[in-house]
């Protein structure tokens, strides 16, 4: 077990990139994926334990909350959380704080991955992908230094209010509805990357074409955003919108259960 551990959920790479940049400051860090059941949940020997994840509909993505509840952390471990969002961080940090009692919490706004709702540049403050990436790298480096020095946040993350709780609960239902709008065009070359990338195992290649299930979709949009042919659409809005995924992260990296950074 490495000295530092970061549990990370990332759909389009922003959070994995942030986790890697924090890890570079810390050295000797395992980044453990929470896209599906984490490969390791007993991290009692780690000195620092972090959680890096995006805000989805005001809450936590996928099964992050239930995974975090199962993680065992040492009594003296320093614990931190970082949420990435387009502009509204929601209650995710508060939910994790309630489970883990975080010493430090931070927010990084980045390009919006929610392409069916808005163009990726509509983050707060609005900016293009290069500027947002630059800003994210600088903030992650600063957070990495803070975490290395075991800095403690002055304030606890925002409370868990009923509106956000209802919003994130409704999100699970909306996901199935949105997943039913996933379609593939004739530009599909049958590469199967979407099937491999889906954290929920919701996509199956049949006769060389992806078939989208609806039941387990977590709405990360990795299938659509990373499609090399831009052949996947979700409803009408995505036909005209530019795709976005983090420029430093590949699908292969996203799929790794653990990434070690020296
Ligand atoms: C399904 C979905 C829901 C989202 N909901 C919110 C939200 O409520 N507030 C917000 O500011 N950003 C929201 N976003 C934007 C993401 O939090 C943001 O793009 C984040 O950087 C994505 O991280 P990732 O690339 O690691 O997946 C949402 C994105 C997706 C895909």
Q: How much is the radius of gyration in Å?
A: 18 Å
CATH superfamily of the largest domain: Flavodoxin domain
SS-derived structural category: alpha/beta
The fraction of residues in strands falls at: 15-25%
Low-confidence stretches: none
Q: What would your notes on this structure say?
A:
Helices cover 31% and strands 20% of the residues. The chain is an alpha/beta fold. The strands form 4 sheets. Strands 7-6-4-1-2-12 form a 6-stranded mixed beta sheet, with helices on both faces. Strands 3-5 form a two-stranded parallel ribbon. Helix 1 (14-26) packs parallel to helix 4 (129-148). The site of flavin mononucleotide has 26 residues, from helix 1 and strand 6. Flavin mononucleotide binds next to helix 1 and strand 6.
List the helices and strands and how they pair.
Blueprint: E1 4-8, H1 14-26, E2 29-33, E3 42-43, E4 48-54, H2 64-70, E5 72-73, E6 78-85, H3 92-100, E7 104-109, H4 129-148, H5 162-179, E8 182-184, H6 193-197, E9 203-206, E10 209-212, H7 222-226, E11 232-234, H8 251-254, E12 258-261
Parallel strand pairs: 1-2, 1-4, 3-5, 4-6, 6-7
Antiparallel strand pairs: 2-12, 8-11, 9-10
The protein binds flavin mononucleotide.
Residues 10-15, 54-58, 84-88, 90, 110-114, 219-221, 246 line the site of flavin mononucleotide (FMN).
């Amino acid at each position: 077990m490495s000295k530092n551990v970061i549990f990370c959920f990332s759909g389009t790479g922003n959070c994995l990139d942030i986790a890697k940049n924090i890890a570079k400051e810390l050295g000797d860090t395992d980044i453990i994926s929470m896209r599906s059941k984490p490969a390791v949940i007993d991290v009692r020997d780690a000195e620092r334990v972090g959680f890096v994840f995006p805000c989805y509909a005001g809450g936590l993505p996928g099964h992050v909350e239930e995974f975090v509840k199962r993680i065992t952390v040492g009594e003296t471990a320093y614990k931190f959380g970082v949420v990435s969002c387009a502009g509204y961080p929601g209650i995710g940090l508060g939910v994790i704080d309630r489970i883990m009692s975080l010493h430090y919490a931070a927010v990084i706004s980045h390009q919006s991955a929610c392409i069916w709702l808005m163009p990726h540049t509509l983050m707060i403050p609005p900016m293009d992908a290069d500027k947002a990436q630059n800003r994210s790298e600088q903030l992650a480096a600063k957070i990495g230094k803070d975490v290395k020095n075991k800095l403690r946040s002055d304030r606890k993350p925002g409370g868990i209010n009923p509106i956000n709780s209802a919003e994130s609960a409704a999100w699970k239902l909306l996901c199935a509805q949105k997943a039913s709008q996933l379609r593939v065009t004739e530009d599909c070359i049958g590469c199967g990357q979407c099937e491999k990338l889906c954290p929920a195992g919701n996509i199956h290649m049949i006769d060389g074409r992806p078939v989208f299930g609806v039941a387990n979709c977590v709405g990360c949009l990795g299938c659509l955003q990373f499609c090399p042919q831009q052949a996947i659409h979700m409803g009408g809005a995505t036909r005209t919108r530019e795709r976005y995924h983090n420029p430093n992260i590949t699908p292969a990296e996203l799929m790794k259960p653990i990434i070690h950074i020296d």
